[in-house]
Each structure stands twice: as structure tokens, then as C-alpha cells.
Design brief:
Structural class: alpha+beta
Shape: globular
Largest sheet: 10 strands, antiparallel
Bound molecules: alpha-D-galactopyranose
Oligomer: single chain
């Protein structure tokens, strides 16, 4: 049993971890432990000091040592004498905002709970158990149901909360976080992933400062700038040793991760919907569901933690036909043509690609309405006949005749002022009455909280997807959202808008992915501005970054790999000099980097030299062979490309028989120093043959002695070594 209850103490056990909490004699739910299995009730670690200015709940009477300000709590609130960051906050009709939650009961079920309208980890009954703990305010009839999904084999625990109004007055919920985790001891550091457009998910590791630190987004998207994932690690934690805890929020909008290091050197992590522009009116009888947070811990460093997240996201977040099968090798015309294309050009690009083994042509932005540049056409999802005179029917048939599948680009949530849709429905735009809206890339945003907007998008996109043999959709989103306001909401409820926008997005994604189960959906947001586990529930892959430079991608993909599996990372070979950096790298270096993802091309292959075409043909062949190992194997970060002169990573099959090392040496020096790279995850007893030169090594040698990084000539030199066990 994953969930065990002794008295009022709850044990959530996975293969290697234990999560423990207890409702004490006042009914306060205290957090006792999240860590390795101890076989022990961990309450003995709690200490109750009498700390000045840390108040005592009234029922503690003369006991000055009982303070919620100093004890680890399971779901922290306001108005009970805990002055740290709360996980939840409400305001009653009289303006007061205390919430004194006490234990009421629990329920255990086999399987994993779902969350209405929101993405969540899913599992079969035998793979998971759900624990629900109900807490109730001592005065009002507000209840909070804490949900825990325990997936023992994955070392994963999910968290979500439901705020229930069982009373007779309307309350305003002004904070409803998904996760609250108190850690009473230890010197912890945190790692978050920051960046900007073209430079996503740079890991930043810092010791905790006393007070509150946070990473968040107010942009209506999870954002390029900070990612809804966080790592807490003990000082000195490395890839292969030390304790770390990871949390990933399955949410694609404004989020907030806050960490407080308090007066007693205790650490509190809360994570959920951003409180900025959030307030939810909860009428009697209504419930509010928070998004899901996925939690995992490792006592053997980041690598184990990444493996746990990779597995749960690949197998229990991603859905649909494509989640576990090899993805098509794409060619996307964006960097080849930008807006300047027609049927003839696209068919030419497809022909050149088909000859080299590419599986699918993706027609990017510019095929619809009057979309000749980025100042027009969004919202008019019908074919531009000047560019495609025979419509999609003719183009798709020609591409199919070349033996290739066809995919298409949409940016559903957007609208151009110069569009028929805007002329017909200016009221569908997110804007504040009486004010000029903020533009981003010239465009405005559709109010996704409106059912009529979503119905329009469902109909118009379905019409396109039904009119020809379309097998793939790239779902883009190219600006931050501001001017939050919806015509359909009364003034007192405008702060519901950012969350309602995300619920609207999920509703449309759900309807379309269910209606078109054979279509592969790829998420995108100016590259990786919405790279989160929420989108991955609908789209098993996401375009990782608009930066396609191979060197830059080694860093961006390194940061992305801490939480997200390789099969989710959209990655292509593009032209040189690279369009974002002007850097030139070889086709092979670009290929090796793009293989650390879904793999594809983003250039006109007809323009390559004959020897480059031969290299492309070879690398597509290699990807067809290595793809299953890359996507199903375990991924190891063998270097840190932000610190080392090279980026090297490794994939190992589950039986440890196949091993692929790929990477890039950034800069060559004369009389180059020799760098051994130590392989990981091999069978020490097995013998492995290196395909490139036939030399045989023992697993033990490769992991402990290492293998020398090849000598390089020039810069951005690709590394590729394939090893296979020879003795079964
Ligand atoms: C975004 C995407 C690009 C491309 C353009 C088209 O920036 O990330 O890949 O689709 O939009 O406008």
C-alpha cells in the first residue's frame, strides 16, 4: 500500500521516498517528513520553542510554545499566527481573511485523481493511490481538500488542493497554491530556470536568503523568463550525489514559486497560480480546483531526480498516439522562407527533403488570410489563395505524393487588427474598456475565457484539419498578455481573467486533441515560452527555443533537461550562418545537437552542398536508428555546458546494452588538454564495443577510467560515440 494511516499520521510511500504528516491534538495538520524512507514516525524531530512574537492559537491556552509560526505545516494559511508565506488565503463578506483549518477526515482510493478542466498526472488503478485529507475552518464552512497522488514506482507524489465553500456567504479566494512544503532542517539551495526569448531555461543556483525569494510569471504564459519548475537541494548536491527535491507545476499561465527561509532557518516552498491578478469569487456550494504540482525527491543527486521526472512526464503526463512512438523527422519552412512562400516553393523544399529521408513538411506562419508579414491576418484561418491557389487540398496531395506527411502552423489565441475576424468581432479582444491595448509583435490577444471565441476557433481549425490529410499542428503563441479584462465578467471578478484564460486554452486543446487523435500537436510560444507540464498533457512535444544555433542549444537543452524528457524537446537543424547569432557550425554539429530532441530541419535542404546533403542523409539514417534509444533510454548530463569547454551527454538503454554519447567541443586549443569523460549508467560487468573504431572497453573502465574526449580541430566540433554491449 502506498498510503498508510496510523492514528492520525499519514505515510505516503514510494519505492525510495517517504512523505509524512500528522493531524495533532488540535487538528492542525503538521508536515513531518519528505525524504528517504526512514521506517520511523518522524515526529520526534519536532521541537516546540517559545519564540517571542510567534503567537499561539487560542485553544493552546497558556502553552506559549505551541505556535504555527514555528512548526512545519502541511498547508499554511493566514490569521492563525503563522507569519510566513501562506499557501491559501480567503476574504469573507465582512472583509476578514482568517482561515483556521483543522483536520476533519480522510479518504484513500486506488488510482490517481483527475482535476476538472485542468491537466493532471494520470495512472491506472494499480499504479497509484490517492489520499484526500479534508480540513475545515473552525468558524466558516470553508473546507480545503488536500489531494495527494502517490505513484510508488515513479518516486512521485502529486499535490493539488480544492477550496470548497460549504457556507452561506460568498468568499473571495485570493491565494490558492497547489503545493506547500515545509522543511524544518538543513542548509538548502534553490535552482530555478530563467531566461528570455531565444535564451530559455538557464539554471541558476543560489543559497537561500532569509526572507522570501520567488520565481514567477505575470505574462499569461508560463514564460521564457522563468519556468514553473524548481529544485531545492542540499549544499554540495551534484548530478550524482546529495539530496534534492523537485517540483513542477502543470500550469501554462501566470505562476508563482515562493521560498521562504525563516527566523528558525526553516524552509517553506509554495507554488501555484500567481496571486498577482488573482482573486476568485466562490459562491456557496462552489469549489475551486488548483492546478497540479508534481513532486519528487532524490538522495542520489539531480540525475536520479531528472530520470524520475522524465519518466512520469513521458508516461503519465503526455497522452495520445504519439506519446511513446517515434516522432516524424520534420522539415519546417519558417527559417527557409519566412512569409515569402507559395505552393511551388514549398513543394520544392519538400522534394529536396524527401530525397534525403525527411518524413513530414510543416508549413509555418503565412499560409492564411492576408498574412504577408506579421502585421496582419491572425484570426483569419482560411487559405491565402494567392500563395496556395489550389488550396491545402492541392499542396497536401503534392507533398503526400513525395511520400511525406504534412503539418500546419496556427496561432489560435491571437488576432491582428488587420484581419476580417477583428473587423467582425472587436469585442473578442482582451482589452480594458476606454484604453488602447498594449500590442506585442503588432498583435492582440483573443479572450479565451469566452465560449464563443473557443467555439469559433474549434470550428475554423477543425475545418482546416478536415479539408486535407493534415497530420501535425504547431500551436504557437507570440506575445505576453497584458490589459487583463473580459467583457463577460463583472467588475468584481476581473481578477479571475488570467486563470480563466488558461482554463479556456485547456478547454480548446482538449476538444481539438480529442477530435483529431491522429494529429501530432506540437506546442510553441515564440519557441519555449510555454514549455511546461500543462502543455505537455495535450502536446507531447514543444518547440524548445526560437534560437536554433547549435552551440546555444546545448545550453538551452541542458537547462530544459532537468525536468523535461528528451522526447518533448522540439529541436531542428537550421541554416548557417545561424539566423539568431550569425554563428557557423557544421551540419554534423547541428545534427548531433538537434538529435537531443524530436529532430528535424528548418532550412531549404536544396541549398546545401552535395557533401552536406550526404551528411544530412546519413544523420537522418542514424536518427532512425538512435531515436528509440534517445527517447526511451535514460539521459545523462556528462558535463555542464555553462562551465565546461564542451557539452557532452549520454543515452543508455534500459537494459544498459546500448549507449550513445553525443555533444560538442566548443573551442579548440593548441596542445589541447585531455579530458576524460566518465560514462554513467552502464553495466560494470559488461564489455562494450565502440562502433567508431571497434575498441572494446569494460563498463567499469568507461565509468571509472572514462574515455578521452576526441582531439578537436576548429570550434564547435561534434562528438559522437556509439557503444554496444558484446556479451549479452
Ligand atoms: C514563433 C515560432 C517560430 C515561427 C514564428 C512564426 O516565433 O516560435 O518557430 O513559427 O513564430 O511567426
Amino acid at each position: 500500500m502506498a498510503v498508510r494511516v496510523e492514528g492520525q499520521t499519514f505515510y505516503l510511500e514510494t519505492k525510495n521516498t517517504l512523505y509524512q504528516m500528522k493531524a495533532d491534538h488540535y487538528g492542525v495538520l503538521k508536515h513531518l517528513w519528505y525524504g528517504v524512507k526512514t521506517g520511523q514516525d518522524m515526529e520526534y524531530l519536532l521541537d516546540y520553542p517559545d519564540v517571542g512574537f510567534s503567537g499561539n492559537i487560542y485553544d493552546a491556552d497558556r502553552d506559549r510554545a505551541y505556535s504555527q509560526d514555528t512548526m512545519p505545516l502541511e498547508y499554511a494559511t493566514e490569521g492563525v499566527g503563522d507569519f510566513r508565506i501562506p499557501a491559501v488565503g480567503v476574504r469573507y463578506e465582512n472583509g476578514a481573511s482568517a482561515l483556521d483549518l483543522r483536520y476533519e477526515g480522510y479518504r484513500i482510493e486506488d488510482g490517481k485523481y483527475a482535476i476538472p478542466g485542468l491537466p493532471a498526472v494520470y495512472a491506472e488503478e494499480y499504479e497509484a493511490q490517492t489520499l484526500e485529507i479534508t480540513l475545515k475552518d473552525v468558524v466558516s464552512d470553508i473546507r480545503v481538500v488536500l489531494k495527494y497522488g502517490v505513484l510508488p514506482d515513479f518516486d512521485v507524489i502529486t499535490r493539488s488542493a480544492v477550496i470548497v465553500n460549504d457556507g452561506s456567504q460568498t468568499v473571495m479566494v485570493n491565494k490558492a497554491h497547489s503545493l506547500c512544503l515545509d522543511i524544518p532542517y538543513g542548509k538548502w539551495e534553490w535552482i530555478h530556470f530563467h531566461g528570455r526569448h531565444l535564451k530559455e531555461r538557464t539554471p541558476e543556483r543560489r543559497p537561500l536568503l532569509h526572507g522570501v525569494q520567488q520565481s514567477s510569471s505575470k505574462r499569461g504564459i508560463s514564460s521564457h523568463h522563468q519556468n514553473p519548475t524548481v529544485l531545492l537541494c542540499k549544499e554540495g548536491c551534484t548530478e550524482t550525489s546529495g539530496t534534492c527535491i523537485g517540483a513542477a507545476l502543470m500550469y501554462s499561465g501566470c505562476f508563482q514559486t515562493q521560498i521562504e527561509y525563516d527566523q528558525l532557518n526553516q524552509t517553506r516552498l509554495v507554488m501555484g497560480i500567481n496571486t498577482h491578478m488573482f482573486c476568485w469569487e466562490l459562491k456557496p456550494g462552489e469549489r475551486f480546483y488548483t492546478p497540479e504540482a508534481i513532486l519528487s525527491m532524490s538522495s542520489t543527486g539531480f540525475e536520479t531526480l531528472s530520470h524520475q521526472f522524465h519518466r512520469v512526464i513521458r508516461e503519465h503526463v503526455c497522452r495520445g498516439k504519439y506519446k511513446l512512438i517515434e516522432r516524424p523527422v520534420l522539415i519546417n519552412n519558417w527559417e527557409a522562407t519566412y512569409f515569402d512562400f507559395n505552393e511551388e516553393k514549398l513543394v520544392e523544399i519538400a522534394r529536396g527533403a524527401a530525397e534525403l529521408g525527411v518524413d513530414m513538411l510543416v508549413m509555418d506562419d503565412g499560409w492564411f488570410g492576408q498574412r504577408d508579414n506579421d502585421d496582419a491576418g491572425l484570426g483569419d484561418w482560411y487559405v491565402n489563395r494567392d500563395k496556395l491557389p489550389g488550396g491545402l487540398e492541392s499542396l497536401v496531395a503534392k507533398v503526400n505524393d513525395l511520400g511525406m506527411d504534412f503539418g500546419i502552423w496556427f496561432e489560435p489565441e491571437m488576432i491582428s487588427e488587420n484581419s476580417d475576424l477583428y473587423r467582425a468581432h472587436p469585442e473578442w479582444v482582451v482589452r480594458i474598456p476606454g484604453r488602447k491595448p498594449v500590442r506585442g509583435r503588432y498583435q492582440l490577444v483573443l479572450d479565451m475565457s469566452r465560449p464563443d471565441v473557443r467555439d469559433y476557433l474549434f470550428d475554423v481549425m477543425s475545418r482546416i484539419l478536415n479539408c486535407a490529410n493534415i497530420r501535425y499542428v504547431k500551436w504557437d503563441f507570440n506575445r505576453s498578455v497584458s490589459d487583463w479584462y473580459s467583457e463577460l465578467l463583472p467588475s468584481g471578478r476581473q481578477k479571475e481573467m488570467p486563470h480563466r484564460f488558461v482554463l479556456g486554452l485547456y478547454d480548446l486543446l482538449e476538444r481539438l486533441t480529442q477530435a483529431f487523435p491522429d494529429v501530432l500537436f506540437e506546442g510553441c510560444c515564440g519557441g519555449g515560452g510555454r514549455f511546461d507540464a500543462g502543455v505537455l498533457y495535450y502536446c507531447p512535444q514543444i518547440w524548445c527555443s526560437d534560437d536554433t544555433d547549435a552551440f546555444e542549444r546545448t545550453q538551452i537543452q541542458y537547462g530544459t533537461s532537468f525536468f523535461y524528457p528528451i522526447s518533448t524537446i522540439g529541436s531542428h537543424v537550421s541554416a548557417v550562418p545561424n539566423h539568431q547569432t550569425g554563428r557557423t557550425t557544421s551540419v554534423k554539429a547541428r545534427g548531433v545537437t538537434a538529435m537531443a530532441g524530436t529532430f528535424g530541419y528548418e532550412l531549404d535542404l536544396n541549398k546545401l552542398l552535395p557533401e552536406e546533403k550526404a551528411e544530412v542523409k546519413k544523420q537522418i539514417g542514424l536518427f532512425k536508428e538512435y531515436g528509440p534509444l534517445i527517447h526511451n533510454g535514460k539521459y545523462y548530463r556528462l558535463s555542464n555546458p555553462f562551465e565546461d569547454q564542451y557539452a557532452v551527454w549520454e543515452y543508455v538503454s534500459s537494459d544498459a546494452k546500448k549507449v550513445l554519447v553525443q555533444g560538442m567541443i566548443f573551442r579548440t586549443e593548441p596542445n589541447m588538454l585531455r579530458y576524460p569523460i566518465y560514462l554513467r549508467g552502464l553495466d560494470p560487468e559488461k564489455k562494450y564495443r565502440l562502433r567508431e573504431d571497434g575498441i572494446i572497453y569494460s563498463g567499469n573502465a568507461l565509468m571509472n577510467g572514462g574515455i578521452l574526449i576526441p582531439k578537436a580541430w576548429g570550434d564547435y566540433v561534434p562528438v559522437e560515440m556509439y557503444l554496444e554491449a558484446i556479451d549479452g
